[in-house]
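Protocol check, entry for the methods section draft. Step 1: assemble the input record (protein sequence plus ligand SMILES). Step 2: submit for complex structure prediction. Step 3: store the C-alpha cells unaltered in the notebook. Ligand used here: magnesium ion. Step 1 record:
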Amino acid sequence: MAALFDKKYVFFGGKGGTGKTTCAAAFSLKASEMKKKVLLVSTDPAHSLSDIYDTSIGPKGAQLSDNLFAIEIDPEVEAKKYIEGIKRQLSGVVSNVVIEALQKQIDAAYMSPGSEEAAIFDKFIEIMESSEKKFDLVVFDTAPTGHTLRLLSLPKLLGLWINSLIEKRKNAVKLLEKASGVKNDDPVLRILQNRKNMFEKAWNILSDFRQTAFVFVLTPERLPIFETERAMQYLEHSGIKVAGVVVNGVIPQAAEGAFMNKRREVQNRYIREIHGKFKEKVLAEIDLLDEDIWGIDNLRRIAEML
Ligand SMILES: Nc1ncnc2c1ncn2[C@@H]1O[C@H](COP(=O)(O)OP(=O)(O)OP(=O)(O)O)[C@@H](O)[C@H]1O
Ligand SMILES: [Mg+2]
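Step 3, stored output:
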C-alpha cells in the first residue's frame, strides 16, 4: 500500500457497499497527514463524503484540513452541464435552424444511458488538468464497478469514434475547399481535434502505472470476489494495470462467540481464496470496526490498517 502514496492519481473502485468511500477517505486523510496536498473526489450523488467527514462538501468543494480538500460531483448535474456545453459549442458553428433540429436529439442524448458517464469523464479530465499543479495526490472515490468500468473504457471508445468523425469532416472540408478555391480553418474540425487530444491525454494518464493506480475494495465474500476478478480482467484487457485489492470488513481476532467464530471461519476461507487469486496484489486487510465509520478518529483507525 505504501507505494500508492507516491502516485498522482488513485482510484478506489469495487462492488457496491464494500467500503470504497471509507477506504478513499481514510487513504486521503493519511496521505494529507504525510504532508501531501490531497484532493478527494467523489461522484456519489448521495453525498457520502459529506456524511463521513460530517461536513458539507458539495460540488464547490471544501477544505477539510490543512492539506486535505474534497469535492462531490453530482452526475446528473454534470450531465446537464455537459449537454448545455455541447449545445453552446455547436451554436458557434452551425446555424440556428440546424440547432433547433438538433435540440431534440441532444435532449434525447441527455436521457440516454452513458451520458452521465461521459459527463463525469469530462469532469474527471477537467479536475486532473486543473489539479495537476495544485495537488500532490488526487483520490477518486468511484461508483460501483459497472459504472466505473464503462467510464474508464470511454477514452478509447470515444477516441475511435472521434477519429472517424475527424476523417469524415476532413473529407467534407477538402471538397468544400476544392469547390470554393479558398482554404478555411474549419471550426468543427478544431473542436473535434481538441476533444481527441483531451481523450488521448486522459488515456495516457489512466494507463500510466507510474502515476495512476486502481485499487479494488472487496469484502471476503463470494460475490465481491467474482466481481473484482471480472473487473480486473476487463481493466487489464483494456490496457489499465490494476495496482491491487484491499480486503475490508475482516472480523477481528478479538470478536468472540459461536456466531462470530462461524463467520470468521467462512471469511477465512474467502480470504485464503483472495490471496490465492490476487497474490501480491492484496495490499491490505482491514478489520471490521465495532461501529460504522465517520469522523476523523474512526477514519484514522482504518487508515492505520491501510
Ligand atoms: N471496516 C469497516 N468497519 C465497520 N464499518 C465499515 C467498514 N467499512 C465500511 N463500513 C461501513 O459500511 C458502510 C458502507 O461503506 P462505504 O460507504 O465506504 O461503501 P461504498 O463501497 O463506498 O458504498 P457505495 O457502493 O454505496 O458507494 C458504511 O456505513 C461504512 O461506515
Ligand atoms: Mg461510496
